[in-house]
Amino acid sequence: MPGLPDQHEPVTLDTFLRGLWEENPVFVMLLGMCPVLAVTNSAINALAMGLASTFVLVASNSLVSLLRHYIPKQVRIATYIIIIATFVTMVDYAIQAISLDLYNALGAFIQLIVVNCMILGRAEAYASKQPLGATVVNGLGIGGGFTLALLSLGVVREVLGSGSLFGIALFGENFQPWVVMILPPGGFFVLGAWLLIFSAFRLRKQRQLDQEGVAQHDS
Fold it and tell me: How much is the average pLDDT of 108-120?
């Protein structure tokens, strides 16, 4: 039985950049909040989770795109989950082999990538309708936006909460860390601040576009 109908989109730079700004999974769509708040107490944890999620997103969505004509519509969600789980298992074993400390720090959130709505959502809304090229480029953009968001939180929380960045001390012995920043409440504080900043930039850009449209109309 055929899969969902194709809706081909031309591959452009915007296909990639949308994931960083207009469709940022964290700052715009508010997806994947569990790892965003749980593993961003340090920059290295944030980077590792971002790269792991990006790999799973690109690899699983690429396979979904390749098989989109062969996956029956009635079982497509279950099929997507099986594909995603396969790549999550690969990432889980890879991180465990590379660094046990990092593996323990990320904890169950590696396995929980399987149910990350960002990845399943892109498989259903995009990869199942687009060819491989567009799917890979869009997946890299969405994964890059997710990694950028995690790093934005992880860097701030580690610098303020531990006085270090990627484990390297930045301040002298007299620095008093804001311990709350590496605790769960710190994740909410920093996320709220970044959402406010991101929304302010988006509103400012929208006002500029509106003003340009009015000026062109008047001329």
Answer: 89
How many angstroms separate the CA atoms of 202 and 69, rounded? 37
49-86 core/surface letters (b: 16 or more CB in 10 A; e: else) = bbbbbbbbbbbbbbbbbebbeebeeeebeebbbebbbe
For residue 157, which phi and psi values (nearest 5 degrees)? -65, -40
Answer positive or negative: Cα dihedral of 183, 44, 134, 112.
Answer: negative
Q: For 17-68, how does the pLDDT look when each residue is reduced to its tens digit (9 = 90+)?
A: 888 888 889 998 888 888 898 899 999 999 999 999 999 999 999 999 999 9
pTM > 0.90: yes or no: no
User: How far is residue 112's CA from residue 100's CA, in Å, rounded to a whole number?
Assistant: 18
Hey, is 177 helix, strand or coil?
coil
Which residue's entry shows tokens 């929208």? 206
Alpha-carbon span 203 to 197, nearest angstrom: 10
Helix (H, G, I), strand (E, B) or coil at 164: strand
- pLDDT tens readout for residues 116-131: 889 999 999 999 999 9
Task: Annotate 3-68 with DSSP letters as a single string.
Answer: -SPP------HHHHHTTTTTT-TTTTS---HHHHHHSTTSHHHHHHHHHHHHHHHHHHHHHHHHTT
Query: How far is residue 142's CA from residue 61's CA, in Å, rounded to a whole number?
Result: 11
Instruction: Specify the 3-state DSSP secondary structure of 171.
Output: coil
